[in-house]
Amino acid sequence: MLSRTRLGALGAAAIATFTVAASPAGAIDFENKKIRVGLGAQMVPKFPGSDEHAPRPMIDVSIADRDGTFDFEAPDESFGFSLIGDDAGFGIGPAVNFEGSRKAKDVDAPLEKVDFTVEAGAFIQYSITPSFRLRAEGRKGLGGHDGWIGTISADYIARDGDAWLFSIGPRLTLADDTYHRSYFSVSPVDSLASGLPEYDADGGILSYGAAAGAEFQLSQSWGLFGYAKYDRLTGDAADSPITRALGDRDQFSGGIGLTYTFFTGG
């Protein structure tokens, strides 16, 4: 399975490069397949804890056997594919995500910049039934926040083959001290420059919430997909002066796009 990704243009370019590079090695067999490619737009928080949103491209790529159905993929899961798996719905593989930079102008305060981050790690998932899937991810920031972040999710799935699909389920996000301090701490220097009180954020549960996704096939070739997600910051992230004075504990995101399905082979 090649998973979907919904992220910015830089991330999309990186994933496209990775996919092309992997294909000649036989990682993905494109004979007698159907490939669904989606493109849309989404609104996401400018940075973790932001009270403002920014538009981002939304990319969706899924591959299935020509006579099969596309595997379920949650709208907020990271890019990845199963290296270890079976027909019972168990899978383990790499997970890659991207977090945009946070600049002083984004926060409206002279706080230290957090650079663009590539988050690389792994996922494990298991479908208890065709209608219920559990998944966990763990990713390490490479540059930028440099921290560890992980998600635990459960999804209820209702579908009629590829004609339509609806999913919904809870989310729990955890992050370490390094991640929390990058986005939610206020150093003595930042405090002096911004007027915010000094604050040392520790790791733990970052947020809890829920995500829902939907897909509708309008014709053999064209379809619609979209999602909505809500996260509530908690713990030190919620108590941070940056969140309380300049941001919001409630984090909303969502998007909608068009899909195009085509077939390979005979």
In CATH, what is the class?
A: Mainly Beta
The backbone outline, from C-alpha atoms, is elongated
Mean pLDDT: 89
What is the strand content? Answer: over 45%
Termini Cα gap? 21 Å
Largest sheet: 12 strands, antiparallel
The total count of helices amounts to 6
Helical amount among residues, as a percent range? 10-25%
In the residues, how many domains can be counted? 1
CATH T-level fold name: Porin
CATH architecture: Beta Barrel
In N-to-C order, the SSE pattern is: HEEEEEHEEEEHHEEHHE
Unreliable sequence segments? 1-26
The assembly state of the depicted protein chains is single chain
How does the helix and strand content classify structurally?
alpha+beta
Radius of gyration equals 19 Å
Q: How many β-strand runs?
A: 12
